[in-house]
Write a structure and sequence with these properties.
about 300 residues, mainly beta, Immunoglobulin-like, 3 domains, 2 helices, elongated
């Protein structure tokens, strides 16, 4: 065999050995990163797994996809890595440096957050005063206004939503608000406070009259077993109060509704000794603050009867 032939054979052997060693070395230098991805900073102890999330080397091609339980297993050569985690509907995230050692598994649990922003503002009544203890809700995030009428909602999902404000002992009112990722949206609100109309209808001898129809302006309702009905949505002004009940004379008279509400008591009579008006003069309108005193009077009348 010629010298050239021997050199070619030896060269081929060296190349094959080098390739084999390289393959062995690459296999021996691999390590693994495993863990779970969820939607809460305390995951997997709290929160929900995120299936279908991609976990990849931020500077390479190696990647893995999370299973239904949020788990993944990523194979990487030993070294230091920053992983990029992404999933539809969530904000991408880069991890801190993760060290991979040969033939060892590194555990890394992480979480993703949805794009969100904050809403802040002040709720005032139509007279300029702060609305205290009003409930403020947007997309499941809730709070209450403070003594200064101010509120803050944190981590509200991005989008245009209803911002619902419910005054204390009032009815919900919706406003539109747009939330931008990473931004604080200021939403000051002015609310015309509905003044409740509380009406108690009683028989002069037998006590509360249930199922009486009470109308105050455009507001209407029926009394309960205690002879009471609360009509919400009223605004200050003068309105006609009408009360009808089977077997009783109809009561109808104009009354003023003050800011903050008013309470009316209408003692009805089946007789005509009251001049046909069906009520006792002097029991017409009381501020809401007099509710307790009036209730005590009704109870005492029932005991006396």
């Amino acid at each position: 065999m010629s010298r050239i032939g021997r050199r070619l054979i030896l060269g081929s052997v060296f190349v094959m050995m080098a390739l084999a060693l390289a393959g062995f070395s690459a296999s021996a230098e691999n390590g693994w990163v495993k863990g779970k991805i969820g939607d809460n900073s305390l995951f997997p102890f709290m929160g929900n797994p995120i299936a279908g999330a991609t976990v990849k080397d931020a500077n390479g091609a190696a990647s893995a996809t999370t299973a239904a339980d949020g788990s993944f297993n990523l194979t990487l050569p030993e070294g230091n890595y920053t992983l990029k985690i992404s999933a539809p509907g969530y904000k991408d995230k880069l991890t801190d440096t993760i060290t991979v050692t040969a033939n060892n598994t590194t555990t890394h649990n992480d979480y993703l957050t949805k794009p969100s922003g904050n809403i802040t503002g002040k709720v005032t009544e139509d007279d300029g005063s702060a609305m205290v203890a009003a409930s403020v809700v947007c997309q499941g995030v809730s709070t209450s206004t403070g003594l200064d009428g101010k509120y803050t909602l944190a981590n509200v999902p991005v989008g245009t939503w209803n911002l619902t404000v419910t005054p204390f002992m009032g009815t919900p009112i919706n406003f539109s608000v747009t939330v931008t990722d990473g931004q604080v949206t200021t939403k000051d609100l002015t609310i015309t406070v509905p003044s409740p109309v509380i009406v108690t209808v009683i028989d002069q001898k037998t006590g509360p009259i249930a199922n009486a129809t009470v109308t105050f302006g455009t507001l209407t309702g029926k009394t309960d077993a205690l002879g009471m009905v609360t009509l919400n949505g009223g605004t200050p002004g003068t309105y006609k109060l009408t009360v009808t009940a089977k077997g009783y004379k109809t009561y109808s008279k104009d009354h003023a509704l003050e800011r903050g509400g008013v309470m009316f008591t209408v003692p009805m009579s089946k007789s005509s000794t009251d001049g046909g008006k069906g009520f006792i003069p002097g029991f017409e309108a009381l501020p809401v603050l007099a509710v307790a005193a009036l209730a005590a009077l009704v109870i005492r009348r029932r005991l006396e009867d």
